[in-house]
Structure prediction request, 272 residues.
Amino acid sequence: MASQLKVDTITGVTTAGSVAVTGEGNSTTTNLQQGLAKAWFACDDMAILDSLNSAGLTDNGTGDLTLTVTNAMNNDDYSTGMGAGGSATSDGSMRLVEGADATTARTTSAIRLRQGYKATNLTMYDDSLCSIQFFGDLA
Amino acid sequence: MASQLKVDTITGVTTAGSVAVTGEGNSTTTNLQQGLCKHWNQFVQSNASVADSFNQSSATDEGTGDTSWDFTNAMGNDDYSSQTTCNSGSYHFASSYNDAQKTTAGDRCYSMTAGSSVTDASTVFVTTHGDLA
Prediction:
C-alpha cells in the first residue's frame, strides 16, 4: 500500500539542514536540500512575474538589473542558471550575463545582470523574458 | 543513529502543496515544492527527438532552430522560470521565446548561432521551475 506523509516542515535529525533522498535508481541517495532551487525568478521588462525567495528587482538602467533574495545564501559560491528570451525575428539573440566589471561582483544576497541582444557588442535591452535560478547553500 | 523515513508521497498538512525544508545553514527554511524542478528535458533539435525528460508529454519540431514541448502536468501559470541551454559545434545558444509562446501547457525555444542566424543546435537542455497547477 502506498504511504503518504503529511507534514509542514522537514528537518534532518543528525544535521537539521541535510536530508538524504533515495534516487531514481533505488540505490544511491541524493541530498534533498542541495537539490532544491533556493531562489528563482521569472522577469519581463524589468518586472518580476513570479519568484521564490525574492526580495525584489532593482532597475539600474536599460538592460541592467539587480536581483536580491530574502533569505541569503551561505556563501557566494552558488550556481546560477539563467536564460533570456524574446522573439527570434524581432528581438534577435537575447542574452543574459552576470556582471560586466569589477563593481558588479555577486554577494550572498544579490546578483547584478546585464541583458541585451546581438552577438558581439551587447546592446542593452529591457524587454527580455529572463529566467534565473539559484542553487547552493542557504545561510 | 541516523533515522530513515520510508514514504511514497509527501503532502503538507496546513497546505497540501507547501512543505518547508530546513536549509543547509540549519536556520532558515526554504519551500520544498517551490524548489523542485517541475520539468526538464534533453532533445535533439533537428528532429525534436527526446533523449530523456521529466513531466513532458511531447516535443515538436517547429522548424529550423525552433522547438516546442508540452508538459504532462500543466503549470499553474505562465510565469515560470525556464532555463534553456544547448551544445553545438557552431557557437549556438538557445533562448526561450517571448511571453506569447509561454503557456501553462508548454513552452518553446529557438537556437541561434553567434552570428544571429536561427539554425538547429545539436542538443538542447531545458529546466523549468515554477508553480504546478
User: Anything to note?
Assistant: The CA atoms of residues 14 and 20 of chain B lie 11 Å apart. The two ends of chain B are 39 Å apart (CA to CA). The first helix of chain B runs from residue 32 to 35.
